[in-house]
Each structure stands twice: as C-alpha cells, then as structure tokens.
Amino acid sequence: MEIAYYPGCSLQQSSSLYDHQTRMIFSRLGVELKEIEDWNCCGATSAGKVDDFLAVVMPARNIGIAESAGFTEMVIPCSACYSRTIVAQKRMQDNPELRDEINSGLTAKIKGSIRISTIMEVFLNHVSPDLIKQKLTHKFRGLKPVCYYGCMQTRFPYNVPASDNVENPQAMETLLKLFGIRALDWNYKTYCCGASAAVNDPDTALNLMAKIMKEAAARGANCFVTTCPMCQMNLDANQEAFCKKHDIKERLPVYFITELAGAAFGISPEDMQVDRHFIDSMTLLKELEQNEHKDK
Amino acid sequence: MTASVLEFSPENTRPFLQEVMEQSGQMLTACYQCRKCAAGCTVGDETGSFTPNILIRAIVLGDRETALNNELIWKCVSCYTCGTRCPNDIQTARITETLKKMAKKAHVQPVLPKVAAFHDAFVESGMRWGRLNEMEFMGVYELKNALREAKTKNYETVVKEFKTQAELGLAMLKLKRLHFGFLFSKGRGEIKALYRKNRYKQALKAKRG
Ligand code: SF4
Ligand code: SF4
C-alpha cells in the first residue's frame, strides 16, 4: 500500500538517520512511503508565536499537495510537524472561510480531510502483527526501555482528537510487545524535554531533561525509545550537559522506535546508522545481539 | 481620603481582557483559579511561581504591565499540559503565544530576548527558503544574539555562547548530523503572497476598528 510521506526539515538534516530508518523499515513491511513533491517547512511551534495565519498556511500547503496527488493518508514522523499539520487541518475544517482564503493562493488546493498519521499509527493500523512476527529474528530480552512520547503526539492547543491516551499513551509499548520487548512503566512519558528551549533557554531545558533522565534511571531503564526527532536530539546531544549539571551517573541511549524495529528484524546497527548518536548507542544493541546468539 | 490599595476600574480593565480573549480565542473569565494548570506546568519550577493561573488573574484584573512582563510567557515551552488539564478548556499556551505577539507589537523588551529572537529567526528562515536550513538559521540567530549582547558590551556572554555552539557543531559534524546541501521549496512564493495578503487584510480591519 502507498502512503504520502512528509519528512519535514529535520529529517533531511540533523536527523536524516531517522528518515533513512523510516523508509527502510516500512519498505520491509510492505508500506510504500511516497515523499510529497516540493513540500515546505511546517513552521513548527515558532510560526504560532509569530503569526497565527502563517501557522496554518505553512502546513496547509503540504496538505493540498498530498490531496491533489490523490493520497488519502499522509504520515509525518516528526512530532512537531505532525502536530502543526493536524492542527492546521482542524482549524480549516472549523473555519471554511479561512480554508477558502488559503485555497485562493494555492496551486494544489485543499479539498477534504486527508488522514494525517503518526508513524505509530501506520505501524499499528497498516502492518499486521503476523507479518511483524514473521520478520522477527531477534528477541532482545535484556532491553529495558522507557517509552518517551513527549508533548506533541497527544496534546494539542486546539480540539484535535488524540490518536492515543493523552496522559498515558500506549502505542510504542504495544509495538514493542510485538517485538518481544517489554517496556517499563514510568511517570515522565509525556513530560516536555524543553523543545527549542534547549537552544534559547538552556538553563530551563537542562533542568527539564534531567527530571526525565532521573526517573528513567530510577526505574532501571537501560534506554529511551522515542518517535520525535526533537526529543531524540535533545535527550541525546545534551545528556552529558544535563547529567553533569545534576550529578547523574547513568548515560542512556535514546533510540528511535525504528532502530528497535530494525534491531528486532536483524538489521545491523551500522546499516541503520545508529552510530550517529551522541551517547554511545551501538554497544547496547551489539551486546544484546551477542547474548541472543549465546542463548540459542 | 487616602487612595485604596486595590484599584479596579472596569473602564481600563475590560479593553485589555477583551483584547487577549479575542486574540487568543480563550474564555479567560471562565477560569476559577483551581490551579490544575499550575500543578502540571512544565516550567512551574522555573518561573518563580508565576504560574498559568496567575497570568490569567493578571489579565482579568487588567494588569497589562505584569501580563507582558513575566517569565512565564517567555519560558512557556508550549507543551499544552495546562490546556489538557484545565476543567474549563482554557489553553494558557495560546495566551502566552498571544502575549508574545502583543509584547512585540508594543515594543516591550522581552524578559528573555533569546526566545523572541529564536522564533523570529526560525520563521524568517522557513519563509525565506520554504524549508528551514538548520545551519543558516542557527547562524542568523546566533549573530542576532551576539549583536544584541555587544550593544550592551556583554562580550563574555557572546564568547561563551559561541564556544558552546562551536562545541555542539563539532560534535554534530563528527556524527554527520550537519547538512551541507541547501534545502528550499519552490512553493515558498505562494506562502509569502498569502501571508502578505492576510497582513494587509488585518491592517485594514484594525484601521476600521
Ligand atoms: S486549570 Fe483552568 S480553571 Fe483552573 S486555574 Fe488553570 S486556567 Fe483556571
Ligand atoms: S504550555 Fe506553557 S504554560 Fe502550559 S503547562 Fe506547558 S509550559 Fe506551562
């Protein structure tokens, strides 16, 4: 099956490993991701802080492109891009005047309501559990992840129905269970990592990240799993800094869900570019792989 | 007769409250100060107890000065926890977003100038090319910061900031997480034109009152 794919700016730059993994994993599962033509920046959270109209127009153009190309569903792996796009769609549905105003200037007009999905929705709605079980080559019994969802997957500033439980989402846990990996329960799965505050207000952001890290370590986790490139980058690139600031001894890899999927399917960490993390993330996967072989 | 400590004058209070309610689309008068938002606020520990409910109280009382000059509107990370938990569906994040815009219009110096500079630079860059080029954007943003700090002869801050960014940049380079190609979208003209048209419309509307 074919789904429109909006990578967004970060998946083409600092988080291009996530783009690479996403395409690779889904093609193995028979889901063809078709990147939409000439997409533009969604404006992220910044647009809403600068101009309300812009915050709708930027993601709106991408919706128009996907719809005009005949797609009925578009997947957006980046949580910020996903959130901005689904909110823009909702605002145009609630306000036809706004939609008409935007359509008046777009080549690819917005028509109806294309389904905008997170990467987890594609996993759980379009891939059969049987197919996943068939693909499994590894079990990774030693993996003790905490699933970190961050803010943008379930909480919206407008009345948009969330795809998962708002305070206690389960999508990643459900998928990991299919891989035979049991995630730990914890309290900080939807807590904010600070997002862009890591750049413009680091004092605040480092304190927020330290809270997340402390709870994960206290629960005995040996890694984080996330779907958001912003969360991944923040917890990974700043880990030395916030751990030093807050006297935390542990260091934990911050995996994309696609990396654990790949590992479970027997794709080598190198092929998935897991060596592009700031905190060493290769060792844990390699160790688990070896232990797995010993078990046999 | 001595002046009373609390002066509440509806003539002055209402216009400001009305303005914030209209622009943010939030029914602030529905707030009954239950503090659920405060309990969940991500940056609650960072704002010196200036929590979302207090911001709302200030606006309802017409205290424009406090509403535009506080840590919360600049530290708010738009995590939307407050709005998810509010029993009256008030999205404080949309109020902090509105107040940022109002502060800019009124030329009020932001409590955290870097935050304002960041979002401006982000949107400018995304609009200029149609896609955000991370390196170009970070360069423009850091330059703006450096210029501002240099104006007040705050050279130490400039050097420290450049050092931090250079270290991060180097680490990213090693991990191949810097992108050297240039991203753009041909459709950026459509967005710019729509944006300009809407700005013009808004200005006309404001003139007519
Ligand atoms: S949760 Fe809502 S009603 Fe309660 S104090 Fe906050 S804004 Fe007011
Ligand atoms: S959106 Fe802002 S005000 Fe609301 S809980 Fe998050 S940080 Fe606090």
Automatic annotation (TrEMBL), chain A:
<dbReference type="GO" id="GO:0016491">
    <property type="term" value="F:oxidoreductase activity"/>
</dbReference>
<protein>
    <submittedName>
        <fullName>Cysteine-rich domain-containing protein</fullName>
    </submittedName>
</protein>
<feature type="domain" description="Cysteine-rich">
    <location>
        <begin position="148"/>
        <end position="236"/>
    </location>
</feature>
<dbReference type="InterPro" id="IPR004017">
    <property type="entry name" value="Cys_rich_dom"/>
</dbReference>
<dbReference type="Pfam" id="PF02754">
    <property type="entry name" value="CCG"/>
</dbReference>
<keyword id="KW-0560">Oxidoreductase</keyword>
<feature type="domain" description="Cysteine-rich">
    <location>
        <begin position="3"/>
        <end position="82"/>
    </location>
</feature>
<dbReference type="InterPro" id="IPR051278">
    <property type="entry name" value="HdrB/HdrD_reductase"/>
</dbReference>
From TrEMBL, chain B:
<protein>
    <submittedName>
        <fullName>4Fe-4S dicluster domain-containing protein</fullName>
    </submittedName>
</protein>
<dbReference type="GO" id="GO:0005886">
    <property type="term" value="C:plasma membrane"/>
</dbReference>
<dbReference type="GO" id="GO:0051536">
    <property type="term" value="F:iron-sulfur cluster binding"/>
</dbReference>
<dbReference type="InterPro" id="IPR017900">
    <property type="entry name" value="4Fe4S_Fe_S_CS"/>
</dbReference>
<keyword id="KW-0411">Iron-sulfur</keyword>
<dbReference type="GO" id="GO:0046872">
    <property type="term" value="F:metal ion binding"/>
</dbReference>
<dbReference type="InterPro" id="IPR009051">
    <property type="entry name" value="Helical_ferredxn"/>
</dbReference>
<dbReference type="Pfam" id="PF13534">
    <property type="entry name" value="Fer4_17"/>
</dbReference>
<keyword id="KW-0408">Iron</keyword>
<keyword id="KW-0479">Metal-binding</keyword>
<dbReference type="InterPro" id="IPR051460">
    <property type="entry name" value="HdrC_iron-sulfur_subunit"/>
</dbReference>
